[in-house]
Amino acid sequence: MILGKRLLTGTAALAAAVLVAILLLLPPLPVVAPSPSWRPSSPVIRGVFHVHTRRSDGTATVDEVAAAAAKAGLQFVILTDHGDGTRQPDAPAYRSGVLCIDAVEISTSGGHYAALGLGRAPYPLAGEPRDVAEDVRRLGGFGVVTHPLSAKPGLAWQGWAVPFDGIEWLNGDSLWRDAPLARLVRTAATYPFRPVASIASLYQRPAMLARYDVLAKDRRVVILSGADAHARLGLRDGPEPYANPVFLRVPSYQAAFEVASLRVRLPEALSRDAARDAESIVEAIRAGHLHTVVDALAAPAAFEFSAKSGSATASEGDSLPLSDPAIVRVRANTPADGSIVLFRDGVEVHRAAAGELVYASDRPGTYRAEVWLPSHGSEGFVPWIVGNPILAGKVQGPPAPPPIDMSGPLFRLASGDKLWGVERGPGSRAELDREGGGVALRYALAGRESAIPYAALNATTTIDSRATGIAFMGSADGPMRISVQLRVLTAGEGKRWRRSVYLDQSVRDVVIPFADMIPVGESLTGPPQVAGVRTVLFVVDSVNSKPLAAGRFALDNVRFFSPGNSIR
């Protein structure tokens, strides 16, 4: 009996000690920010981007996500379930008073790319980052690189030269998944008591901000945060992070939504017409009329960023012509220990420990503002508010690629030559068609029982080693992609290099420098071995085609070019 009492007393004492230790480790609650002395010049609404539901790898229905968003005080939520763009997006709808906007997160071979304002794609969107970004833009969507610097190689973005539209500077899921183990253990201990503050304790200045400033020097890119909310933590080894069958629903959707959110500036207040309001929000995001607030640091937030030169004015996301020196003005309800910081082309040019910053300059550049607060998880300061830039003066766009030199003699593959043939996989159909001039392929891909639905037009030919690319006139009976490939004969399937291109009913001149082709297979590296090529292939790109897809594409004036050389 005495031993039992002692054990009970010891256990209680240990539990009390653990509880006291946890209480001492609790991160601070958000600072109460002062009320601003000014009112925003335009309506500003609060919401989140990048949310997953049960339709992909989330754990809640759309209605449940909307209910969590309402509890978090949001006015809109942008759903980005994984997909290939071929699902018709749900119509915008108000649920629990929150506007739900349907988008999609697409997996490329070099990271993930979310598309807003996209209708139903005519074929699966996948493949190289440059191809997916090109397709999203062609289809009228706005593309955002998600978790670009993820610690997981399969999620990190590889297409930095791709002209994408937007990029996440902060990803809520990566915030805790990429944190060191020791900090995660501490966060796990305090999460049941203060979930939002515990997640925020992992927050440090993201490296993506410096990467963004380099990007924004040369081109316009919208910057925003992504919640990347799943409410899913796997408990078994497996293909993490989300395919795990055993999991906890943490961090919760509401907690994820309360860590950080977007403030979108609209031309007018929400009308409660879901379609109209969704269009207004997406267009504002396209224009860069938004900023991010890390709500777990301080709340509520008020921020306004503007600039003036002569009679011209601009707000965040806009361009400003410089006729006179630019007067840049930043206003925020900065807490007592915070500062407003102004950057030009990524370099700090002014800082004010106050609620307003005014700066004058005749220097063109990309101006961007942040509001800093002391860090909860380490020494120093972290961004509380991160705004989109104002492009003042003649800000150069990305360097235009040099024109492709197609001067000099050409070597043509005449459509009547016997070198043309077809290839196909089991169950697929491929027929050579010479009707209407040129050369064409009629195809019908195999169904899902086929491991590789395959149909291709081929030309058995050598290529002069001095050739630098291939060009042709191409069209198809409907939107599709073909993979132009060079094959060197070896044992097995041979060595191949490829470049995917888009075709539709319009006849277009397609020009592919060999330097743009990438090797097929992980064991092959480097540029095409042109001198060893024996086959040129025009393959129905199975990455962008559904099983049983059928159609026809046509080629004419197929030629290799070699500037400054004589091809024999």
CATH architecture annotation of the largest domain: Alpha-Beta Barrel
Report the span from N to C terminus. 102 Å
Structural class: alpha+beta
The CATH topology label of the largest domain is TIM Barrel
CATH class of the largest domain: Alpha Beta
Query: What's the number of extended β-strand segments?
Result: 37
**How many separate domains make up the residues?**
3
Low-confidence residue ranges: 237-241
Shape: globular
In CATH, the homologous superfamily of the largest domain goes by the name Metal-dependent hydrolases
Q: Kindly state the mean pLDDT as a whole number?
A: 91
- As a percent range, the share of helical residues equals 10-25%
Percent in strands: 35-45%
Largest pleated sheet: 12 strands, mixed
Q: How would you describe this protein?
A:
The strands form seven sheets. Strands 2, 3, 4, 5, 13, 14, 18, 20, 21, 23, 24 and 25 form a twelve-stranded mixed β-sheet that branches. Strands 26, 28, 29, 31, 34 and 37 form a six-stranded antiparallel β-sheet that branches. A six-stranded antiparallel β-sheet has the order 27-30-36-32-33-35, with no helix packed on it. The longest helix is centred in the N-terminal third of the chain and has 24 residues, at 2-25. Helices cover 17% and strands 36% of the residues. It contains nine helices and 37 strands. The chain has three domains: 50-296, Metal-dependent hydrolases (TIM Barrel, Alpha-Beta Barrel); 301-398, Immunoglobulin-like, CATH 2.60.40; 410-561, Galactose-binding lectin (Jelly Rolls). With 568 residues, it is α+β, with helices and mostly antiparallel strands.
